[in-house]
Amino acid sequence: xxxxxxxxxxxxxxxxxxxxxxxxxxxxxxxxxxxxxxxxxxxxxxxxxxxxxxxxxxxxxxxxxxxxxxxxxxxxxxxxxxxxxxxxxxxxxxxxxxxxxxxxxxxxxxxxxxxxxxxxxxxxxxxxxxxxxxxxxxxxxxxxxxxxxxxxxxxxxxxxxxxxxxxxxxxxxxxxxxxxxxxxxxxxxxxxxxxxxxxxxxxxxxxxxxxxxxxxxxxxxxxxxxxxxxxxxxxxxxxxxxxxxxxxxxxxxxxxxxxxxxxxxxxxxxxxxxxxxxxxxxxxxxxxxxxxxxxxxxxxxxxxxxxxxxxxxxxxxxxxxxxxxxxxxxxxxxxxxxxxxxxxxxxxxxxxxxxxxxxxxxxxxxxxxxxxxxxxxxxxxxxxxxxxxxxxxxxxxxxxxxxxxxxxxxxxxxxxxxxxxxxxxxxxxxxxxxxxxxxxxxxxxxxxxxxxxxxxxxxxxxxxxxxxxxxxxxxxxxxxxxxxxxxxxxxxxxxxxxxxxxxxxxxxxxxxxxxxxxxxxxxxxxxxxxxxxxxxxxxxxxxxxxxxxxxxxxxxxxxxxxxxxxxxxxxxxxxxxxxxxxxxxxxxxxxxxxxxxxxxxxxxxxxxxxxxxxxxxxxxxxxxxxxxxxxxxxxxxxxxxxxxxxxxxxxxxxxxxxxxxxxxxxxxxxxxxxxxxxxxxxxxxxxxxxxxxxxxxxxxxxxxxxxxxxxxxxxxxxxxxxxxxxxxxxxxxxxxxxxxxxxxxxxxxxxxxxxxxxxxxxxxxxxxxxxxxxxxxxxxxxxxxxxxxxxxxxxxxxxxxxxxxxxxxxxxxxxxxxxxxxxxxxxxxxxxxxxxxxxxxxxxxxxxxxxxxxxxxxxxxxxxxxxxxxxxxxxxxxxxxxxxxxxxxxxxxxxxxxxxxxxxxxxxxxxx
Length: 912
What we know:
Elements: E1 20-27, E2 30-33, E3 47-55, E4 61-69, H1 75-91, E5 97-102, H2 108-112, E6 140-145, E7 151-155, E8 167-171, E9 175-180, H3 186-203, E10 209-214, H4 222-230, E11 255-260, E12 263-266, E13 282-286, E14 290-295, H5 301-315, E15 324-329, H6 335-339, H7 355-366, E16 393-400, E17 403-406, E18 414-416, E19 420-428, E20 433-441, H8 447-463, E21 469-474, H9 480-486, E22 488-492, H10 498-507, E23 519-528, E24 531-537, E25 549-554, E26 557-562, H11 568-581, E27 588-591, H12 597-602, E28 623-630, E29 633-639, E30 652-656, E31 661-665, H13 671-675, H14 677-687, E32 700-704, H15 710-713, H16 720-723, H17 729-739, E33 771-774, E34 781-784, H18 786-795, H19 812-815, H20 830-840, H21 856-867
């Protein structure tokens, strides 16, 4: 589209250059900027243009343009707003999505900019109205509709306006009443309370009383009596009458119309396909509730104006008051628009360059306008962070058929691609110990054992009252949290489970299970000692990559290979992993392009191999969806500009970050639906509602309300007090509105701060910290956790040379000296208790054995588990005995001749 300066209104110069909201009001057919202090204030007699600019994680700016039409605005003003919206889009490079908003029927996205609501005021700038002046407070009645965003409309202050289906707010001078219709939902009532808070703050300076009135409860309290007295006394409410607003457009057939010479003509076709849309034309897609205007990349500004005018004319017809007009540009269609077609290709070859935006930027730059926001920004490169305390306890089970086998610490970090595993990670949370229970599926694992792993993990979660977060992870799609928990990981080919062995036998395929004396090639990757992996790959030259380092061994022969693009950090990781895989042998270093013949012979000869680093999909901007499951069908509703308050305790939500998804489950969701949370996440990946090519093997997290892990709460401005409240959404919100905030929860003081980057910042806490030491035989720096050391020990022989070892385990009783009391000996570690519970929850009928009856194997396993846990010697938050006065026993007796004056005589020991 050609762009000239005469098409650009001066008011739009510099618009959309930074994230935020910009609003213009149409005054005398020209856009005039609205100051930020007046954002959210709309007058019924005016028209407005609203620009929402969002900065994505990649650094690029995305634009949404809305034009809002008050119910009393003139047709000329409305037409001006529509045209100015097209011009603003041109000024931004012709990529914005444009929405027509009509008072009372605004889109959810528009209302999300002005949470909790907008309440238009009488008046207008050009229509002869006078803006309402500050005057004596008048009693007003509002009706509220909406579960996620609230449409607020003022209605006549009369009993006839009330009904059983909606929620009403009566705003009087001294008190605000919320009337909850008996048929309204808990979520609608909670959202309406946000409007009550808004009215209180906006029109009462935050100083007035709040009252909640329940439909059907006659004269239950003084507030109820006062409410009905304002309506002249109680009387039965009339049934709600159907009107234009309640009409359903679901039965409206979708029609495609081509706009030519300002007229819309139907397009005849058997089915709607992408091929019907020509790049040099504009089209209307009439879906009833939505009317889309599609504008080809090669159309002129005048053609786009004409198409918008034709759409406006169509919406003036009968029964179209609720219809939304959405204008999209070729190549930047919304998901909703694409979903209306029977077929839409994944990618469309459209000449979408920076040319249009660049021309606009060049024109504006000549006039001295800052054009930084119009040009594509460089992507923001971020090192992924685990956002989880990595000093906790880890237990790992291998799934074997319908059973799970607890692995000793020496095998925790050695997993096979043909097996499935369950892990339980316990770590210190904000005010209590938190748990993450997950499953890991190897690429060669069988479906039966995958299903068994999910079932066993679900039972573990259920046995812990659904408190732990749950994760489903596939090999090759591991999130940073998984790697950080395991710290050092070796993924071996083949498997040890019966399922894998049976599969190999039935399919008559070679058993690739790793052999220590065989030929094996490992790709080493990671970001440091706290996050490093050795992945066994095919022992052929094509498996190499110039961006990585490798370990190759055959019997007693060991090579390390460094790619030309590998860093010194990568080479250090190879040294660390070599201590695990082949600690007893000296390796032969090989650099790319200087390899020996023996090296190539082990790989079967030279071959071409890649040089680009394996890049995983980047995390996208999170998007929140409310989930509705009906007849096993999943329906989702997107929540725009979401906050923690959008998470309703009665519902389930999905947070989509593209690389992984979170299923958030409210406390009030019934147990049966909680058990299906993982299935809902899998259905979401299958449906791919955003058409973003989601992987079916993307990690899925199940997050329970009240136990949200930090790697979930980081997407919100989180208030843990809110998630720990009891009651339904309405009861919680009512408490907050009446008291001004969520009730605070007394939290015991923690001794050690949380460390998200790796180890605890307190040196004494050595449970999973790594020691740094040097071996006299080889100059190689190592850092080892207990699991790291135990794993290395399994590769070493009895006569192995002496390697560096971590310092001995230190119990808290040694770190924090405390006098022994009868009660302290009874205190057990939370982690040990939970581990014992989860390991034995399937054997609830067994009678617990005494220590004497425990066999040697159990003793060995318990000692292994104990080595992973620091026993708690004091209760959480209990103060230490430092500074407490100590008195001789004789002075504490009632018969003492020199009793302690500070102690009550009744507290002393009575000696008979």
